Amino acid sequence: MGYAYIDTGAMYRAVSLYFFQNHISLTNPKEILAALERIQISFNFNARTGKNETCLNGLNVEEEIRKMYISNMVSEVSAIPEVRRAMVAQQQRMGRRRGVVMDGRDIGTKVFPDAEVKVFMTAETFIRAKRRQQELLEKGELINLDEIIQNIEKRDRIDTTRAESPLVQAPDAEVLDTSYMTIEEQVDWVIDVIDRRVSELHREGHFNKENA
Q1: Domain Cytidylate kinase: where (predicted)?
Q2: How far apart are CA 96 and CA 145, in angstroms?
């Protein structure tokens, strides 16, 4: 559709990696704020793979931030109010000109509550874990399925109960349960939702692709 893609979860993973590598205390607000001043996150499109890659202070960290040790700490890091506020501010700057697809757990409620199209994606925990295990296997990392399930359940519990930007479904979001859908079926479903919403906005005279 010609829109930029921003994976906000990758931003929190990159912060987690920086904190891990630099031994930043998660209970010291002053140390956290100082660390956040030194963190620059950007996304580069890889034409060979057709995917965006996350860069932390100019270094490609896409593979490292997807590893389980980062998954095990990212929800704890992203629940820190100072981290949350810093990343939300960056995300709002990135999407200020619109024309973006933004992926994250608080986009439709906190980052862009006025987004034209909101999709709340979900799936059964076991299926999410199987998909995650396959992703890790493709990267050469063999992780026990029970460990992945525990990680997913822990992350969901932390993310839905945190005080700052909790994971909740926006009232005006379209719900997509991907449990028994192929990727192609999911894409078609989302495109249909977008086409329907854009048609509604056109009829109302509110839609401009430059500001979508």
Answers
A1: 2-195
A2: 39
Query: What CATH number does the domain containing 164 carry?
Result: 3.40.50.300
Structural domains counted in the chain: 1
Indicate the angle between helix axes 8-21 and 81-94, nearest 10 degrees.
Answer: 140
The pTM (predicted TM-score) of the whole model is 0.83
Residue 57, phi then psi, degrees to nearest 5:
50, 45
Residue ranges making up the domain that contains 22: 4-211
Q: Tens of pLDDT along the chain (212 residues)?
A: 788 889 999 999 999 999 999 999 999 999 999 999 999 999 988 888 888 899 999 999 999 999 999 999 999 999 999 999 999 999 999 888 778 999 999 999 999 999 999 999 999 999 999 999 999 999 899 999 999 999 999 999 999 999 888 999 999 999 999 999 999 999 999 999 999 988 888 888 765 555 44
Per DSSP, the three-state class of 183 is helix
